[in-house]
Amino acid sequence: MDWGDRKEPSPKVGPRSHGDIDYARIVHSASFRRLQGKTQVFNLGDSDFYRTRLTHSVEVAQLAGSLAVQFADQHRDTPAGALLHDRSMIQAIGYTHDLGHPPFGHGGEVALNYCMRDNGGFEGNGQTLRILTKLEKFSATAGANLSRRTLLGVLKYPVPYSVAFNDELRPQLRNDVTAIRVIDRDLCKPPKCYLDTEGDAVGWILEILSQEDRDRLCTIEMQPGKHNKARFKSLDCSIMDLADDISFGVHDIEDAIALGVLDEGDFRRYLTEDSASAFTSYLVKKYPNEYGNSAYEKWIGALYGNGDQRKHLISRMVAHLMSSAYLEDDEHFSEPLLKYRATLPDDVEIYLKSLKDCVYERVVSAPEVQHLEFKGQNLVVAVFEALASEPNKFLPAEARERIGQGDDPVRAICDHVAGMTDSYLLKIYGRLFSPGFGSVFDRL
Residue 366: which residues within 8 A CB-CB, separation 6 or more? Predict the structure, then answer.
């Protein structure tokens, strides 16, 4: 057994690496294409400028690949450097990281976790693993049939739903709203995990590890009042995760400023001179003739200036975060892919966290975004429950066939709804609930 193995035998043809093969399968997958129709932060159709799930995933893959090249160069004479020669594999993992997210962003995720409350729950990262190991169609029984190492990189939270779940946070409807049904979004947030239905796939991924490494990788951190949290992830996954954080913290800031939904005062409240000191010190050190003693003011002035100035500074923000990253070493693991992890120095981590907090609290949590997320959440619940009422009549032939082959009917409905784009779910909702909408001649 080795990290290049696949669940189903698949001879490697020609000079392509395992990463090249996995990269191609992801790029050509239906689930990857559907990301073009799924919300990132802003509602699809409001503008043609901002990121969708697809463009975000492309950026994460590019950043992850660049981080891998950087680490390979920094560690060229160490065991860590030898692990990072296959850039295609790291990029493939970056492309996959949001495949499992349902329509309407995290509102859809919360909605499906409510719908699946008595049937194993739902979580977007767990659904990604399910898509890649079961639902894609590159093999008879192993989904996309990716290499073991790529799937280890995809396994962001190596803890099953049943172990991560805190029973005190069981999904339910709110009891303080009487005229309409409203799910309790705090209680319906899922734990970060893989789904128990993928226990066999995870077992296969990890069987190459020693028992000690496997046990440690799967340990959890207990969090009173919260779901339990996975403690560890692989090297490749940590690179993807850092790339995702950088993209969320920087690129979503760019979208928010360009679209006029994040004013300068709010930005300054989160990115103070202290919290941004790592970046402004970087500017002064790298470009002393440009910034002098006023780096903080010039940085914010450029972000809120014209588009050319903003793009210039966004590039420098990304470059700073990327160049600051390094690999830390955990000697408690014997497997090299678990021993190393991508991370940031404390002061740079504070800066990135401030960016992410600003995006989440002033953009994602803004009423303009939350109204649409709430609406999307309720559309997801309505479509799910309608389909579940008579699955043999309402589901498309492919989903009915899976049920006939032994799949759990409720999980099959969840898979179907989670795979929908925003616009497709709206179309199905319209056909089911809107008078005068839809025709028997519509193609489903």
Answer: 261
